[in-house]
Amino acid sequence: MGENTNKKIEGAEGSTNRERRKYPRYPFTATAEAVEMSSQARIQGRTSDLSLGGCYMDSISSFPVGSNIKIRLTMGLRSFEAEAQVVYSLVNMGMGVKFTNAHLEQICLLEKWVEVISKEALPGQNHSGHLPHPGSEGNPETKDFELCTSL
Fold first, then answer.
1. Contact, 95 vs 62, CB < 8 A?
2. What are the structural domains of the chain?
3. What share of the chain has pLDDT > 90, as a percent?
4. What is the pLDDT of residues 66-85, one digit of tens each?
């Protein structure tokens, strides 16, 4: 277990395109808690959407754009935790968050959640059951993807 299981998460990179997100987002409600890393200030809220690259967190308060945070999303008895960055912030509304780093087990949970909600959002479509692993550019042959699906 001496292996480093933290993985960078690629997603929501900026571009000049109209849609800057790398991954599709889906409606998803979970309780959310964000902690700003330098001040340890906490904000609680809930998500309204989720993707493999980030989420939108509804909250009365929000952190400024560029803030580095730790975020915890809780659905039922399971929680997803990751380091993240605030990419947009709306006063009295919430903030858009880009996931930047998480343990492999956390990425696996995120992938499972997105797999379930993507099937619910697109009923009747043929799903392969495979999701692109963040950072693998959609290649399920990577070592990380194999580790994730075997957990």
1. yes
2. 7-150 (2.40.10.220)
3. 62
4. 999 999 999 999 999 999 99
